[in-house]
Amino acid sequence: MAAAIDFYFDFSSPYGYLAATKIEALAAKHGRCVNWRPMLLGAAMKVTGGLPLPQIPLKGDYARRDFVRSARFHGAPFRVPSSFPISTVPAVRAFYWAQAKDPVKSISLAKALYKAYFADDADISRVEEVIRVATDVGFNSEEVAAGIGDQAVKDKTKAEVDAAIGKGVFGSPFIIIDGEPFWGIDRFDQIEKWLATGGW
Amino acid sequence: MAAAIDFYFDFSSPYGYLAATKIEALAAKHGRCVNWRPMLLGAAMKVTGGLPLPQIPLKGDYARRDFVRSARFHGAPFRVPSSFPISTVPAVRAFYWAQAKDPVKSISLAKALYKAYFADDADISRVEEVIRVATDVGFNSEEVAAGIGDQAVKDKTKAEVDAAIGKGVFGSPFIIIDGEPFWGIDRFDQIEKWLATGGW
User: Fold this and answer.
1) What are the backbone angles phi and psi of residue A5, rounded to the nearest 5°?
2) Cα(A174)–Cα(B39) distance, rounded to whole angstroms?
3) Contact A48 B59 (CB under 8 A)
4) Which of A16, A51, A60, B157 could form a disulfide with A9 if both were Cys (CB 3.0 to 4.6 A apart)?
5) Torsion of CA A51, A56, A62, A66, to 10 degrees
């Protein structure tokens, strides 16, 4: 069995959301599993000096248009959230708590959080919304709430984010396959070829 | 006849170079002509606050790797130039001078300048190199030299760069089709669909 693909993403990233709708089918087609690794772009931006797209003159206007068009292109339900971008710390903590408890269901949680934010305009920066989404995929609400507040989960989250940046992750989605990094939903064509050929 | 596609690019942009190897075939397939519009990314970066990729932590390392891999993916000869990025003011001026003199041959000049820089490691920030490349595609060296220094050509260059920024161009390549903007060689899949369907 070939090594799993590392899939890094930020829950506030539209392109990460689009990637999340496609990564598993792509990986499975080539006999690969996917490690879902939510991170915090804000932490990476402290290293790169980057800004959230909407804040950048010219690029922000383009990005807003490209989000919508790209979602249509990839066939994913999407609307620009009322509040964008947002802090996703509670969502990431909930994910890593869930991963320790039930790895398979944690992937359902990641997808549900993305759908809640980008398709249903739920404000997943709010702990209550994260708990609601987690409950919908079958977790116990009190356990999730406790998990989000647990110091060990906070430490795990920080360690994961630091490790991502240590591997050079600065954007979302960011996929690493056998050490080879790919940034962006728009590198899925290269990822496909890489998986099929083992590099070129 | 449908309207021409506007193809904006910077001569120091690897992704612009890759796009330049593909844009005409793509446009022709859909009955479109291409307006080649070299611009100066440095001027756009004054508006966006952006930096050249190599100067950005994490992103710069990734970009250098992605340039090489993307060139292989797209089948274009490429090496990271010894000096990168560079000022391309003489190249852009030579192009707009050439465009006024011989529009068809000016496109050959654009392609030859890109090839000189990204395949042959010629330093096209130097006026003498630009003149050499222009001579190779059939222009008269003394006329090119005079053109690059001509105030009217300088004014035309500035007007084109300002107009590009006015249209929201902040990256390279940047393609506008019937008012719809597309940024990046990695939007060619969307461009292809847009040209085929008239939007979606």
Assistant:
1) -85, 135
2) 30
3) yes
4) A16
5) 10
Between helices B89-101 and B151-166, what is the axis angle to 10°?
Answer: 100
CB A84 within 8 A of CB A54: yes
Place of tokens 């990431």: A92
Least Cα separation, residue B170 to chain A (angstroms): 6
Phi, psi of B188 (to 5 degrees): -65, -30
Q: Is B178 on the interface with A (CB under 8 A)?
A: no
B122-159 as b/e, with b when 16 or more CB fall inside 10 Å?
bebbebebbbbbbeebebeeeebbebbeeeebbebbbe
B190 touches chain A (CB under 8 A): yes
Predicted TM-score of the model (pTM):
0.96
* Topology at the third CATH level for domain B5-197: Glutaredoxin (3.40.30)
Instruction: Record the tokens describing residue B95, joined without a space.
Output: 């192009």
Instruction: Kindly state whether A58 is in contact with chain B, defined as any CB-CB distance less than 8 angstroms.
Output: yes
| Cα A176 to Cα B57: distance, rounded to the nearest angstrom | 18
Of A58, A62, A170, the CB nearest to B58: A170
* Closest-CA residue to A123 (of A162, A155, A82): A82
Q: Answer whether A50 touches B (CB < 8 Å).
A: yes
Q: What is the enclosing helix (H) or strand (E) of B177? A: strand B174-177
Whether chain A has a CB inside 8 Å of the CB on B50: the answer is yes
Question: What's the pLDDT band for A139 if we cut at 50, 70, 90?
Answer: very high
pLDDT digits (tens, 9 = 90+) for A95-112: 999 999 999 999 999 999
Find chain B residues with C-beta within 8 A of A186's C-beta: 184, 186-187, 189
**CA A66 to CA B151: how far, in whole Å?**
38
Alpha-carbon span B142 to A167, nearest angstrom: 52
- Give B99-144 pLDDT, tens digit per residue: 999 999 999 999 999 999 999 999 999 999 999 999 999 999 999 9
Hey, where are the domains in chain A? Answer: 5-197
> How far is residue B105's CA from residue B197's CA, in Å, rounded to a whole number?
31
How far does A101 lie from chain B, in Å, by closest CA?
33
